[in-house]
Every structure is written in structure tokens, then in C-alpha cells.
Beta-lactamase family protein
Amino acid sequence: MNDLEQLTRATVTKLAAKRNGVVVAAIAGDTVEIQGSGGLGADTRFEIGSITKVFTALALAKLTVAGVTSLDEPLRDLLPAGTTVPTRDGQEITLRHLATHTSGLSRLPTGMLLGAILRPRQPDPYAHCTREYLLGALGRAKLGAAPGRRFRYSNFGAGLLGLALANRAGLSYDALISREISTPLGLLGTSTGGDTTQGHRANGRPEAPWQLVDLAGAGGLRSTPADVVTFVRAHLSPGGELAPAIRLAAETEHRVNPFLTVRLGWMAQRLHAKQGGHLQVFHNGGTGGFSSIAAYDPDTNVGVVALSDTQRSVDAPAFELLKALQSGA
């Protein structure tokens, strides 16, 4: 058993203890090790939750490179005529703001928070998030800060970004991601539709699938470990059709604090010197029955993907694996 295989297996064992099933992938240069538990493997389909946001933001970068839109184009320009879009201090919401969570919009669409508090275990809580509902919620929204001023993580904003880009392209969100990302990378298992393996709540009980409807850009994609690995490797060694977009996404940053920045879609943190000082670019995700994370370090050319069919965070063991790979690079 080589070191990469041993490290991956150890992470699977750690995660499998409290989950129905999990798949972990370790990337080191041109070598990839994928292992799973519970009968799950490289081609098993999962709900990947908020990792979807990185796909949405990369689609924005690609359309920007193509001149179809621009990072600083106002959101209102990509929505139906007459849509009310809030402003604050004279600042409009732009596509850059949506992709970097600096729009000032709330985490959830306007009016959803109370329902989430009163019914925390309701199945498929985003099932009503149609275009009409989201645009109505946008019209009622009050911004928590002037756009561009402050980081405020927003599913609402990311979903609106996906909706706006699809509207500009004249496609569904699913067709947009297929055209701009999945087809160029050869991702055969990535879409908003189709079956997945059964998801489970944290207590192990089965959970119904989530359908995010027109909020899909925030967390509606389903994918396989093999596809997410391909997506991460495209960021480690940018080339081909997506290379300019990947570079633009990496270069566009908003600083959250001294150690953390948000790029287009991705988060990026610099470890303390005592921890090696390495860069970790990442995004995690979670739905009612799944949890996920994708992370990489472009400097050492390593990465990690962990997808679980149980709503329990996989972050800590995945970051431990990434640090081990960085140390051994």
C-alpha cells in the first residue's frame, strides 16, 4: 500500500464511523486515489450542495472572458424588465458581488428565515424557490450593507447569479452548466437532475432529495467523485477552453479577514507559518441528506474531494488529509 492509498483509506475509515457511506479522493500531481465505504465509489452520484456555487461562479468567469457579460455588470441588466433590485448608499448589486458574497443580500431569500426556524426539519425546504418567488423576494429585500463592502454568505445571492446567467444565455441553469463547464471537462455525471444514492440525515434516517428549482445555482448540482476530481484537477493545471476563466476566478478576490479571502466561488485561506504556511482553496456543501467538500493547493499541486451520503460535515478529516498531502509534496 503506497502513502497516498494509505492516507486516503485512513480518511475514509475516520469518516465512515458515523456515516452511512463516504467517498474520498486524494490528488497528488498526476496521481489520484479514490476510495469509498458503504458500497459507494467514484461513479456514485451525490447531491454536492454548495460546491455548486463554484460551478456557477466559473460559468460567470467564462461568460465574462467571452464578452457575454462582465463582473461589474449590474444584476438588474440580466433580469426581466421591471424587476426591482435593491440598492444601498447608491451602490447597485453587480455579478461580482453575487459571486463573492458581497451583495449585502441575506443568506436566505427574503421571508424564508422564519419558516426555516419554525420548521427546521421540513423536507426539501427550497422546493418553492421558483423564478417568480425569487424575483419577488429580491424586490422585498433590504441590503445588510452597501454592495461590495462586506462579506455576507448568501445562498440567495448565489442562486440569483445562476438565474441571471441562465437568463442572459437563454438557457436553463442545467443547460448553461453543461455547455460552459461539464461538456468542456467531460463531466458525465454532473447535472441538476437524475438519481443519486440515498441520502441520510445526521441520525442515519433516509432523507428525501432536495430540488432547488430556480435557486439551483446556490446548491442544486448532483455529481460524482470522479467528476469533482476532474473539476479540481482543472484548477490545479489550468489548460484548454476553461483556463482563462479559471485564472480570472482565482485573481478576483475580496478579503474577509487577514487569513481568508473569497474568490469567484471559492474560499481561500493561508495557513499559519507553524502549520506550513500553505494555501488552501476550498468550498464545502451540505443538503438535507449529503455533505461534501472540495479543496486544493495550486502551489503544491495537491487536492482532496470528500462526498458523503449523510448530513454530517466531512470538513475536518478532509482538511487533515489536505495538510498531509501538502506536507508530503
